Hints:
It contains six helices and six strands. It has 155 residues and is an alpha+beta fold. It starts with a helix and ends with a helix.
Amino acid sequence: MKSRRQELILRAAEHGNVHTQEQILEYLQSHGVAATQATVSRDMRVLGLKKTVGKDGKTTYELRETAEAEALALARRRRALIADALLSVDGAGHMVCVHCSPGMAQGACAALDAMPPAGVVGSLAGEDTIFLLCRTAEDTRAVQEEILRLAKQDL
Length: 155
């Protein structure tokens, strides 16, 4: 939830029209994420958002490049890659089979390996298919749901 909240804060700031923390709170709530003003303030500090005064005299929160902001941007690109590649997800026993657009399985698998869902022991990718070995049969279903969630995130 923290990662999603911070990604939404970055998204709001990228649009360049955030003048108050209350606006960010409203933006988070409109996306189904509850947060307090103190949490938003702390996230903004961690993410490197700074308050500046524009030519119109209004204060605006802008993004400063930080290692954490860069990491979140990379995670966003990985999710986009998974979303672009994904055709279907199925599971059997301890295996999850991810069908991808032709030529995209290895890139999507590398993205999943970089942020592996809990319960994944290992992965193998071909041209258009990824196999994920899960620790338990219960993990299989959870991994399927996590992959679908990653692909559907609007970030």
